[in-house]
Q: What sequence folds into this?
């Protein structure tokens, strides 16, 4: 399989087939909390996509060069300290702590950048920007990347090496497509909830209850996408 | 430090039903939806969350005088991440199959809002014993909520409970209940029922006082 068709499969898989919200259940808190109006939902989706991309770039770099077993920088450091030519060090126990640190600091950076250069956008985001730190969708993307980078050797830095491990290209595709899938899901939900305001709901179901029920129906609809990836890979395999 | 608010025992009981993290505070939705396909996964997950919540609460309570306001969330998440690494490695060592089934949801405990919320609201202000009993109450409440959802989904979806068949062979396995849509619909319906019961009880209390 060529790099391009692999990237298309990853993108379609992350955006619609295994949608972050409706299939993996990550990012449910903003999905319920910020889906009241379409414009706010779209802003939240864009912010999450942006932070996911920055966090994926940083966490891929850290995982590939430092954290994974046999990573180049760590091996070099260990070898020069111990003086043994075959010494290795597995730092993957530090994965989670490094990821959460990367996410928290990239959210902080994005917040400072937006406040300085786009003050109006910053005002409309309000409290939601810092809340992105605890959005599971971002940590989930980092973990997926970790899973595919740590599988073994191979895979050049840009993803064209042809090995089993993911390069930067695959990681960034997963992150951007995943953020896009989150945006699609939250905007659809906000559109439905704007209409719901005119409905006569039972008192007990108002708020999270009805949102979850609708999300269930949306998830049923998105299940219709399963199998698209097999058809796509068949098509692209036939074209080669 | 002067003790304010409810005592440890009251906090323990509060966590189970009156302030149930899932049904009352609507926190920690991701694991609630993701791991409730069967009872075994749900109970393993509750145990992992309980371990991390109790350890993180005790640790935060011990270092509460050293915390600086602008850095506290970062300190909480790093503390939690350390304990989650312990829980994840232990699961992978002793229950490798369960660890595979839970997949990314064990590391995702790091960003579970319940734990950050308890560190912020309770542990960073209270003594160790109170923080620990608060954490135990909240984790009991979380385990109960997960058990209720997992029971419904597993029995309807596969006709079994803890893997033991209970419904007999006539039950047509309602497969959608163990798939993602079933999770959303079950939790939505249960939240509705919980709210309805809550308003009924508060309505009764109000008329009883008159």
A:
């Amino acid at each position: 399989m060529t790099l391009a068709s692999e990237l298309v499969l990853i993108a379609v898989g992350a955006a619609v087939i295994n949608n972050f919200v409706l299939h993996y259940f990550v990012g449910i808190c903003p999905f319920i909390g910020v889906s009241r109006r379409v414009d706010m939902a779209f802003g939240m989706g864009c912010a999450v996509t942006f932070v996911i991309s920055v966090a994926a770039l940083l966490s891929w770099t850290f995982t590939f060069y430092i954290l994974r077993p046999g990573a180049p920088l760590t091996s070099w450091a260990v070898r020069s300290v111990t003086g043994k030519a075959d010494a290795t060090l597995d730092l993957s126990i530090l994965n989670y702590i490094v990821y959460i640190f990367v996410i928290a600091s990239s959210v902080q950076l994005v917040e400072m950048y937006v406040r300085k250069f786009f003050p109006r956008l910053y005002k409309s985001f309000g409290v939601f920007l810092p809340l992105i730190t605890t959005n599971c969708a971002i940590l989930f993307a980092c973990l997926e990347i970790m899973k595919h980078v740590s599988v073994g050797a191979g895979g050049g830095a840009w993803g064209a090496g042809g090995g089993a491990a993911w390069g930067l290209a695959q990681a960034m595709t997963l992150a951007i497509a995943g953020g896009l899938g989150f945006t699609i899901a939250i905007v659809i939900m906000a559109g439905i909830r704007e209409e719901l305001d005119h409905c006569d709901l039972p008192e007990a179901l108002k708020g999270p209850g009805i949102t979850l029920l609708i999300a269930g129906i949306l998830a049923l609809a998105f299940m219709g996408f399963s199998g698209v990836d097999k058809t796509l890979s068949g098509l692209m395999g036939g074209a080669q | 430090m002067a003790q304010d608010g409810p005592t440890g025992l009251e906090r323990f009981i509060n966590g189970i039903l009156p302030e149930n993290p899932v049904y009352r505070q609507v926190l920690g939705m991701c694991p609630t939806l993701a791991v409730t396909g069967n009872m075994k996964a749900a109970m393993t997950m509750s145990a992992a969350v309980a371990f991390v919540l109790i350890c993180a609460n005790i640790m935060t309570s011990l270092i509460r005088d050293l915390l600086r306001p602008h850095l506290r969330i970062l300190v909480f998440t790093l503390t939690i991440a350390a304990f989650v690494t312990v829980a994840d490695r232990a699961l992978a060592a002793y229950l490798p199959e369960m660890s595979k089934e839970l997949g990314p949801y064990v590391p995702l405990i790091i960003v579970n809002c319940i734990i950050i919320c308890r560190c912020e609201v309770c542990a960073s202000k209270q003594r160790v014993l109170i923080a620990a009993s608060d954490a135990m109450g909240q984790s009991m409440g979380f385990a109960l909520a997960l058990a209720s959802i997992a029971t419904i989904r597993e029995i309807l979806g596969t006709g079994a409970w803890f893997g033991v068949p209970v419904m007999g062979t006539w039950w047509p396995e309602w497969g959608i209940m163990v798939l993602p849509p079933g999770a959303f619909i079950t939790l939505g319906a249960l939240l509705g029922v919980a709210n309805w019961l809550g308003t009924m009880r508060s309505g009764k209390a109000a008329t009883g006082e008159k």
User: Anything to note?
Assistant: Residues 104 and 187 of chain B are 21 Å apart (CA to CA). Chain B has a mean pLDDT of 84. Chain B touches chain A at residues 26, 29-30, 33-34, 73-74, 77-78, 81-82, 84-85, 88-89, 104, 107-108, 110-111, 113, 116, 176, 179-185, 187-189, 191-193, 195-196, 199 (CB under 8 Å).
